[in-house]
Amino acid sequence: MTIARMGGCLLLAVALASATARAADPGLEDELNGWRLQQFAAIVTSEMGEPFKSLEDPPFRYHAYRFDEQAYLVVGIDEAQPNHVASLQLTGKASTLMSPFKGLRLGDGRDKVLAVLGPPSDIVAVAEPKLSRLEYADRNYSVELDEAGGLYSIRLHINQAFMHIPPDDEDPWPDFLAALESGDAKRLLPHLRPDVEVYRHGRTLSIQQRFSDFAARPDPALLDAFLSADSGVRRHARDCRHETAVRVTEKMGVGVVWKFEEPCGLGEVVMFPHAGRYRVYEVAFR
To answer: Does residue 227 register a pLDDT over 60?
Structure first.
C-alpha cells in the first residue's frame, strides 16, 4: 500500500477486486418529487423561484417553496455543505402535481401508508399542527399523518448509511464500464451522483435542473463526455492504463479515484458514496 497527497485529500493506493456492483440499500431513498438529495441547492431556487419562508436551525437552514395551492417543498441545507441539498420534505393536504413516493401521494389514508411502508419503529406526536410522525430506524425517510389519518408530509434526509459503503462492498468499476460500453443513457444515469461535475474542453458540465427532468432529457454535452466512443470516458476507460486509489475526505467520507496515465486524454474518475453505493462525483479530462 502506498500513501500520497493530491488536492488536499489523502490517497491510499489499493487494489479492488473485480465484481458486479451491489444494488443500492432498499432502506435508502434519494428522490422526492423529482429532486434528489445532494443536488446543488441553488438549482431549486432557479427553478421554483424564491422561497416564501426560510428558517435557521443551526447547523441547518431550511427554505420552503410553494409547490401548488395545497402543498410546498422544504429544502434543508447543512452548513457543512452549504451548496448541497441535505433534506427534502413535501408537505400539504393533497397535491395533484406531485410525483408518487413509493406509490404514495399526499392525502393518502393511513391504511395505504402502512401497507406500503410497513409498521414504523416509532410514532412521535407533533403538537402544532397536530400530527403523528412515523419513523423507521433503518431508513432515511419518515412520514407524517394528520388527525384524520391522511398522509400530510414525506421527508428524506442524509443519514450515516446514505454516505457509508459496507467494508465488504464490491468494486463499482466493472458495472460502470458495462454501462459506458452499452452507450445507453438509462444505464449510465444510476451511476451518477446528482452533483456530478465533468471538466472537459475548458467547461464544467453538471446537472442544472430537477433531476427527473434531466433524466427525461439528459444534457447532450454531459452524455457525450461519458458515452462518446471517440473521445468520452467510454473510449479512454477502455483503452488507457490506470491505477486505483482511495480518497478520504472529512465531509464526504471515503471515495475511490481511478487515475489514468499520460498521454491519456482522461485524467481521473472519482466516485463517492450516494444512497449507499459508489457513484461518479467528478470526471477530469486532460
So the answer is: yes
Report how far residue 40's alpha carbon sits from residue 193's, in angstroms, rounded to the nearest whole number: 11
Query: Cβ distance 245 to 12 under 8 Å?
Result: yes
CB of 260 within 8 A of CB of 266? Answer: yes
Q: What is the 3-state secondary structure (H, E, C) of 136-204?
A: CCCCCEEEEECCCCCEEEEEEECCCHHHCCCCCCCCCHHHHHHHHHHCCHHHHHHHEEEEEEEEECCEE
Distance between CA atoms of residues 151 and 131, nearest Å: 10
Q: Is the CB of residue 104 less than 8 Å from the CB of residue 153? A: no
Q: Report H helices in the chain.
A: 41-48, 110-117, 173-182, 185-188, 211-216, 220-227, 233-239
pLDDT in tens, 67-83: 888 999 999 999 999 99
Provide the 10 A C-beta neighbour count for residue 28.
21
C-alpha distances in Å from residue 42, one per residue of 76, 122, 195, 263, 280: 12, 34, 12, 37, 21
Grid cell 427525461 in the structure block, residue? 216
- Please report the sign of the dihedral spanned by the C-alpha atoms of residue 240, residue 241, residue 244, residue 249: negative
**Per-residue pLDDT band at 23 (split at 50, 70, 90):** very low
pTM (predicted TM-score)? 0.89
Domains and CATH numbers, the chain: 2-22+166-285 (3.10.450), 31-161 (3.40.33.10)
Distance (Å, rounded) from C-alpha 163 to C-alpha 272? 8
Give the gyration radius of the chain's Cα atoms. Answer: 20
End-to-end CA distance of the chain: 27
33 is written with which cell numbers? Answer: 418529487
Grid cell locating 139: 431508513
For the chain, what percent of residues have pLDDT higher than 70?
91
CA dihedral 214, 218, 219, 221 (to 10 degrees): 150
